[in-house]
Amino acid sequence: xxxxxxxxxxxxxxxxxxxxxxxxxxxxxxxxxxxxxxxxxxxxxxxxxxxxxxxxxxxxxxxxxxxxxxxxxxxxxxxxxxxxxxxxxxxxxxxxxxxxxxxxxxxxxxxxxxxxxxxxxxxxxxxxxxxxxxxxxxxxxxxxxxxxxxxxxxxxxxxxxxxxxxxxxxxxxxxxxxxxxxxxxxxxxxxxxxxxxxxxxxxxxxxxxxxxxxxxxxxxxxxxxxxxxxxxxxxxxxxxxxxxxxxxxxxxxxxxxxxxxxxxxxxxxxxxxxxxxxxxxxxxxxxxxxxxxxxxxxxxxxxxxxxxxxxxxxx
Amino acid sequence: xxxxxxxxxxxxxxxxxxxxxxxxxxxxxxxxxxxxxxxxxxxxxxxxxxxxxxxxxxxxxxxxxxxxxxxxxxxxxxxxxxxxxxxxxxxxxxxxxxxxxxxxxxxxxxxxxxxxxxxxxxxxxxxxxxxxxxxxxxxxxxxxxxxxxxxxxxxxxxxxxxxxxxxxxxxxxxxxxxxxxxxxxxxxxxxxxxxxxxxxxxxxxxxxxxxxxxxxxxxxxxxxxxxxxxxxxxxxxxxxxxxxxxxxxxxxxxxxxxxxxxxxxxxxxxxxxxxxxxxxxxxxxxxxxxxxxxxxxxxxxxxxxxxxxxxxxxxxxxxxxxxxxxxxxxxxxxxxxxxxxxxxxxxxxxxxxxxxxxxxxxxxxx
Lengths: 315, 366
Prior knowledge:
With about 325 residues, chain A is mainly α. Chain A has 13 helices and four strands.
């Protein structure tokens, strides 16, 4: 051993060199993270501060804000000021839109999970050489713009669309089924748009799964159903959590899909907020609505993560 | 050897397993038949790719045979899924569930069988004691060492009290010392539980020290089944003699033959009358096998069974290997156990004699 022959002084010197090296590498790491921090600061934190400030101001008549403090934006979220006697009256209009959006997002997440899990499992159990082709197939929708793809759905489900024409021609129905501009259309569009975001994290989790554990469970008298619930699902939990977050959060704020497929009749949060900055000309209200959405997501996230991580602990 | 009917834990009858289709077909098992008795420590020994793990997986139910049947106590289990067979496996990778504690891993099989909670707890406690892991029962499997994981894997497979325990190279990931410890541990567990063990390994030493009987496999076939002594002293084929221990192979010609003994002329003018395996009819060119430790060096070349020149001496601590070049150009190794009093010292280049008894040699197919 070389260290055995070194004097204590040499050893302490070596230790201080080591400490310096550690410090230097920590400095380098901080330096490397700088570009990312700058981008997050300018394009993430700063806009959030602006939104926060704007939400406490008064709307200017032609868009923009007047620099005057007010909590009206938040009050307007739940209440309406009576034009005659200036009293506040409870109006659930916005709340209903929020709840509807939550419902849409939850249904989207659940169905995406139910459809995505078998898909991801199928992909993960293909021979390794084939798997990348399946991943490629899943990502094909990303090659074209969501707007274009959503318009394509419109052409498929409208009254003179592919489905109705085919069913009419086959004589299954004698007048077209109305699908476009319904809740069904929005739900379909959301499922279509977000399914890949569920499949990909699930796949990456399942691909790492050691299938010898599945064999071990079968060997220990677990039936197929028990293997799924006791081994495969607990071990793919990170993928399930990631997939659910990646679907739920953007689905909640979806804008294009409900706008086109819902025809502006069935609003979701995204459209509502966009309206405030457009035809509504009420920027503070839009800002407040965006922040309320964010707070709601954070609360939902908190409970979701706490529940799911608790389950992992108990096996 | 006459088999006693009804005393077999596992009977493999004419099992064939083919992987792939069309031109890529590979017969991993080529019509294998073997009987494994109750309470036996039975080892499947062979080089990698010989089909030993395939046979184990067929018994476990992870794969299904292309042809043939597998009987467990007389009942055909070949079509049953793994969870319907009273057989458990200790995997080479251990395959412990990372999301469960040591105790949860051990209790998993019993839980799946729907045993009452109290019974599971009692059995898990018993198993933890058996493998000396009581102190670590609440640990995650990622928080224990390789040797400890091995013990948990054993306890997990033994907990449901299977009729047969399958062990797929369970010791190969352990270091030398731990492996030795676990070999003794495994024998103890088998003795205490009275369960039939089927052990797969490519380590011939492990097979010899642990097994009641060994099946030597090569290229999808079982070449010989017997006790360790049978396999070592009376190999049935050249491959068996070569794979297990070290052996000298000498070319020879059969001169004459009577029941069980053939006289063979080899290494110039030397002749020897040696035994040959059942079912083999020695004639013409044959192979003569002699274990290095069954031969002795003598200083006088004329006094040996054969003579040669000492080409190399390799010291191994416990013993010394003498490499002798025979007159025909073949090499012969003599192993001599070292002791405190070393009687004769040899020098390389010396002419020496090699002496061995007739029962040390065996005649095999060329």
